[in-house]
Amino acid sequence: MGSKLDLLGRYVDVNSALKYIEERRHEDGGYCFVSVLNDTNVNDTYYAVKTYELLGLEVPEKEKTIEFLEKAIQPQTAVVAIAMALESLAILGAKDIAKGHLDIVYTKYNPVEGKFAVGLGGSEEFGTATPLEATYWVVKAFRAIGHDFSKEERDVIRAFVMKFRKGNGYGVKQATTTMTYQALYTLYALGYRPPKSPHFRNCELCGDWGGFTEVPYSLPPYLEPTFYATRGLELQGERPTCPRRHIWFIRQLQNSNGGFRRSLELGISNFQNTYRALAVVDSMSRFV
């Protein structure tokens, strides 16, 4: 228990971050980043579960959280949220429960039938999910619960992902860090080995800044591209150039309530930012 907390605690106030998460757990087993609201949701619950996993801690009253997540998997639920629920269930040791809801996923996401997230719905990054984002989350969830795509499905998904190729990366109109990582992760997870992309390194800021940007040679850095670029470098077996500076960047993002915001400017804490900040520090700490 203490080792990961102690390690991350060298760089950020991990105990206050954990308290921030714990204080926002509700009676139904779900979480809501605005503690005074009872509007628990899959997104916040997913990132709470991921934070506990990252820190090597048990989720409090996890049976309640399992029940909450299973109830959230409904035909009207956005496919990204369903994928988050499935992955969370796997982390909580409930893979069999997750696999029992695969039929709902296939009503919304069935590549062989040309369905790349019917209705799309809620997104992690873009307001409304892009089909590539939905693909990433479904592939990630299926991998977590141990459900394999058929060869036909894998080939169709690969061809679909390659439509987003833009130069050295992936995106809709231009390559972005988020979509480049999502595309490469998807290809790797399906067993393909795409060429390494220089995109992540071209978005790395050292010197006075730290962090990463969405597009190369731009400012300012934000947390989400920093998270995805960090994951992208790991995926490609590469090291960051200035890990200490990236940790410095993350340190500046912690708010007084223990949570993290997305930029050096003022901003509110949320669970997504908090998990991603801790995950970046965890990764960068291996190189300092």
From TrEMBL:
Keyword Cytoplasm: no
A Pfam short name: Prenyltrans
Top-level taxon of the source organism: Archaea
CDD domains per UniProt: ISOPREN_C2_like
Keywords: Repeat
GO MF, any single term: catalytic activity
Residues of the Prenyltransferase alpha-alpha toroid domain: 13-80, 134-191, 209-282
InterPro entries, per the entry: Prenyltrans, Terpenoid_cyclase/PrenylTrfase, UCP016175_prenyltrans-rel
Protein name: Prenyltransferase alpha-alpha toroid domain-containing protein
Organism phylogeny: Archaea, Methanobacteriati, Methanobacteriota, Thermococci, Thermococcales
